Amino acid sequence: MGISKPLVVALAAAISTAAMAGSNTLVGWAMMPADTFSDGPTSAQMANANPYGTFVPPYENRQPVQGFSAVLPGADENSFIFMTDNGFGGQTNSADTLLRLYSVRPDFRSAKGGSGSVSASDYLSGAPLARFTHASRLTLNDINQKLELPIQADYRFYYNDDSRPRVDSAIEFGRLLTGADLDIESVRRDKNCAMWFGDEFGPYLIKTDASGTVTRSAISLPGVYAPQHVDVVAGSATANLEGSGGFEGMAINPSGERLYALLEKTVSGDATGTLRINEFDINQERYTGKVFLYRLQEPGLAIGEMTAIDETRFLVIERNGATATNGTPFKKIYLIDIRGVASGAEVPKTEVVDLMRLADPDDLNGDGKRTFTFPYATIESLLPLDSRTLLVVNDNNFPYGGGRALNADVTEFLKIRLANPIPGVRPPPTGQARDARRCDASTGLSTG
């Protein structure tokens, strides 16, 4: 006796639902268009156009709100602070791109509703804003000349080259930091409300107050030199770390006293496929000398972010550069633990999420599928919201792309519900931006 077609369909649906019940599940989704801009100096004057013929630079009197490479809790539970990276992919084309943090408010689409749109929000309150303006952001600056590094604000023309455009007056007078000065890829706020940025050019640690004003000289990682390190450029040191291999990920322990800075590439002489995690004492403002090793699943992969669960456990994004339009994407999140691990030894790791295999029973992104994939080249923002929920956001590398299709990538915001909760995760504290204002009220925000 045959089985009726409706019954077959019902059985298939039941099997699919049962399979997804044990899967990590997309429970919130939102999207920010590629062409999202804020006011500011003209940008991308030295950047190449994308191959799709869209969003052709330069962007007159505008800065792209793009390249999200790190996330902090926002001023309320519905907003988040995102840090942009160095601009358009390299030191040589990003001198007119400002290093900023933006307050962003996603309206997540979920099974219960939501528009899936993303808006600007007030940096200090989290309140929605109509557009990205000075109230939504802060801009890093070295107005007090602490860095002891050459920056674009020191020059009359970008790159100190009179064949290039004139340095914008706002950059010059505010000593605003740009993507040619530093390649920041990570940020954390310590117990005193100071902010620490992980850079790839040194690699350096950069300390600012809550307004984004640099408060001390850049801190080098002892014995490690990227090609753009000031000593390598001066000829007094030899690079032993590839370009774009610096502090891609950086975590801070819950007490706010230790940073754990993770390099993106292997230091010359280290075992192939291993990356250093460097412990830094915030109170002493120096490295402790403890180093742990993170082993990639395969040599040639890269990490995208590292964030703390507790004093010894961390989540790490690991990925390749492949996308849906180029190669086979590998995008995963691992849990590591340094407890009981000796300095110089490898940390154990456990897979937590495969970002290419998420259940999407409610088709939140509207692609007609019940399985969600996240195939972007770079995925660099990760924030645990509770023991079962992670926020994950891609770096869209504007105006380039090819993540899902042959066009400029959008920025997607995901809420992922874990099939297996991570014990010990605490919801992120809210009001951090307001606390920062309390800690540094006399300085005010740098809104260049």
TrEMBL record:
Specify the superkingdom: Bacteria
Q: Which InterPro entries match?
A: Phytase-like_dom
| Position of the signal peptide | 1-21
Q: Which residues form the Phytase-like domain?
A: 63-398
Q: Which UniProt keywords apply?
A: Signal
Q: Where is this region: Disordered?
A: 424-448
Q: Does the keyword Signal apply?
A: yes
This one is known as Phytase-like domain-containing protein
> What organism is recorded for this protein?
Stutzerimonas stutzeri (Pseudomonas stutzeri)
